């Protein structure tokens, strides 16, 4: 479907995972007018050449920033929250602002990965209470919570190792955490590297026995599951947040696209309809 900006179905996609570009392409293929928001210029590179109508880079500065976009560029047929499962603040802010403005909002959740893990932690602090004396633990949880993770692992008796991306945030975290240089890797994959090559090499070089990562679903969690299974490592998952606001949620990209390909419009309560009056909330 093609149309002008005035008559075309419009989506504002807030993307925070590696699946964002493929989702954007699928939406374009369905005929949607697509506005993309990402936090970093590095994330924006993956959308070059897709032909999205708008691409903005940078944090939204809270509810006021969200409201500003809706006021200047809305309304949208849908605002689509496809941010990271652990990015709970932006999800709550989207729900707050969209609800006040009666702007339809849809949350894309990742399907849960299956397979055995050694343990699931409620939060990183729970690691302190585990017996990890002499274990060589790789903390694959990103830069923002690296200091907390390192402290918890060390209190449990572990030898902590970490890998962070060479971003400003990653470098600051790496410098602040106090790990010896030979227990810290600040790097990103090179173009053409096989998926997981760096992670597997670090596990081998450091003789890792345990890996801690987030229960975020998607390619990153699957990667660590595969590596730990192949190498016989213990995998610890930090549980996915469950305190998200009550909102219209679709699990998995396929289900989302099927939902949108129906007629693209939000569900409304219709007493006496065959579907029992599907509601856009819940």
Q: What do these coordinates show?
A:
This protein has 282 residues and is of the alpha/beta class. It folds into 2 domains: 10-111 and 243-262, Rossmann fold (3-Layer(aba) Sandwich); 123-238, Rossmann fold (3-Layer(aba) Sandwich), CATH 3.40.50. The chain contains 9 helices and 12 strands. The strands form 2 sheets. Strands 3-2-1-4-5-12 form a 6-stranded parallel beta sheet, sandwiched between helices. The model is unreliable at 267-282 (pLDDT under 50).
Keywords, separated by commas or semicolons:
282 residues; alpha/beta; Rossmann fold; six-stranded parallel β-sheet; 9 helices; 20% strand
Write the layout of secondary structure elements.
Layout: E1 10-15, H1 20-29, E2 33-38, H2 41-44, E3 54-57, H3 62-73, E4 78-82, H4 88-101, E5 105-109, E6 119-121, E7 136-140, H5 146-155, E8 159-164, H6 168-177, E9 184-186, H7 197-205, E10 210-214, H8 218-231, E11 234-238, E12 249-251, H9 253-262
CATH class of the largest domain: Alpha Beta
Examine the secondary-structure arrangement and name the CATH architecture of the largest domain.
3-Layer(aba) Sandwich
Strand tally, please? 12
Please count the helical segments: 9
Overall spatial form = elongated
Write down the CATH topology of the largest domain. Answer: Rossmann fold
């Amino acid at each position: 479907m093609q149309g002008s900006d005035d008559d075309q179905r419009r989506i504002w996609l807030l993307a925070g995972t590696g699946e964002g570009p493929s989702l954007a392409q699928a939406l374009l293929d369905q005929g949607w007018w697509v506005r993309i928001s990402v936090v970093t210029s590095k994330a924006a590179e993956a959308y070059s050449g897709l032909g999205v109508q708008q691409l903005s880079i940078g944090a939204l500065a809270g509810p006021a920033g969200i409201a500003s976009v809706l006021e200047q560029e809305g309304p949208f047929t849908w605002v689509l929250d496809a941010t990271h499962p652990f990015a709970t603040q932006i999800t709550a802010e989207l729900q707050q602002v969209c609800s006040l403005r009666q702007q339809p909002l849809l949350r894309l959740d990742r399907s849960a990965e299956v397979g055995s893990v050694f343990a699931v932690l409620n939060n990183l602090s729970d690691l302190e209470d585990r017996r990890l004396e002499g274990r060589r633990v790789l903390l694959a949880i990103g830069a923002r919570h690296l200091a907390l993770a390192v402290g918890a692992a060390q209190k449990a008796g572990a030898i902590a190792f970490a890998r962070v991306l060479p971003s400003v945030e990653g470098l600051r975290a790496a410098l602040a955490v106090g790990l010896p240089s030979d227990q810290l890797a600040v790097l990103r994959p090179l173009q053409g590297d096989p998926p997981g090559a760096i992670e597997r090499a670090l596990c081998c070089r450091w003789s890792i026995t345990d890996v801690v990562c987030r229960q975020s679903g998607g390619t990153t969690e699957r990667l660590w599951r595969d590596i730990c299974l192949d190498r016989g490592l213990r995998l610890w998952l930090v549980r996915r947040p469950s305190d998200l606001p009550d909102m219209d949620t679709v699990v998995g990209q396929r289900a989302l696209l099927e939902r949108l390909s129906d007629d693209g419009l939000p569900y409304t309560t219709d007493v006496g309809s065959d579907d029992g009056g599907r509601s856009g909330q819940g």
